[in-house]
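FW: tagging you since you asked about this chain on Friday. Here's the raw sequence from the shared folder, copied in full. Didn't touch anything.
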Amino acid sequence: MTKNKYGLFTCIAMIVGVVIGSGIFFKSDNILVATGGSIVLGVLVFCIAAISIIFGSLTIAELAARNDKAGGIITYAEDCYNPSVACAFGWFHTFLYYPTLTAVISWVAGIYICILFNIEGTLEMQTLIGLGVLGVLYITNLVSSRLGGYFQNASTIIKLIPLILIGILGLVFGNPSSLSQGDVSNMSSTGWIAAIIPIIFAFDGWIVATSISHEVKDAKKNIPLALIFSPLLILVIYILYFVGISVLIGTDNLMSMGDAHVDLAANQLFGSFGAKLILVFVVISVMGTVNGLIMGLTRMPYALAIRNMFPYSSKVSTVNKQLGIPVVSSLVTLAIVLFWFIVHYVTQKNNLLPNSDISEISITLNYVGYVILYIQVFRYGLSGEIKGFWRSKANPVFATLGSLIILIVGMRSSLFWLYALLCGLVVLAAFAFWKRTNK
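HL: got it, structure written out here
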């Protein structure tokens, strides 16, 4: 594939653009409800939830600095363990993790576009518009991978504007006494742990940048830098927005109004057109997330195929000379996403996954999978291959702790074991394929 298409900023834009979607705009009320209206406790929960992404990124950065081959996490698993483990990681991300997220977030784009243009938001209409968004962004990335990168950069900058503006203006014009409201003693109970649930999924998607590592300028330097800088930036922006909007409209208003608090804040700061303006930003924000996921997903079958880990590898690994991208790989992923789009529609139409959706199938188990990579970084530290106590020991330990927190929270869901079973079947299928192909 064509080298040196992406720089450090695009890597950062991929991580920030995928992690920061629409969720943060509409989760502040859930967090405050769980913490009994305490902003201080809410900030603490943000920091606890961020353990998984910050220390996970710092740990994976050590592996990224050692290798810039195609595949990202597939490469790291292959180097750390063996090809069968790498195949399992690749199949898990190709058939479950990336496509389910892509399908659901495309649908979310359809929801907000319906609201923005006052279109009747039936499930069918939201799904059709979501498919349109998906199609446009796939075509954009197929026609020009650079164009997809440019859109990612632009959408990331645009989506940060409302978050930073509301955060700063909220602190300037809000009521600072709100910071002392809420009962911090709630921490003595376990109810506040529920606040981790809406936060943890708002942090997901940071691994996506590693999938384009083979197309990044000076990847061994830039990928680790992106993995280190992006999570810290995201945490700062999340906390700024959360505190700003809380003190601007007050914790009681925020909790009682639910998702409508965003409209109140927008009108209070920007006037009557504020709500529409925020919706425009949200739509761009969601589309940026979809674009980043597409950029990552379309490379996955290719990365597997060059290792003979995917059906019809000789065709899937072919790179179009004019476009400089693996077109067959991209089309394969489009078919997978469309399959999950249908599944998502059926589950939503018939309420088969109450208070959940298909995007949650693999998120919790994905972090559990990262643990085996964290363990290998720790081993590199023990052997002296990675120097420094924090780099080689503290970072992987805290990253593992973050994954265990996500697992414990995820297991509270009544659908956890169903999701775990589906994830297990995909992993077993990957092992079986590798074993059959490499007899």
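FW: The chain has 19 helices and no strands.
HL: agreed, and The chain has a mean pLDDT of 83.
FW: great, closing this out.
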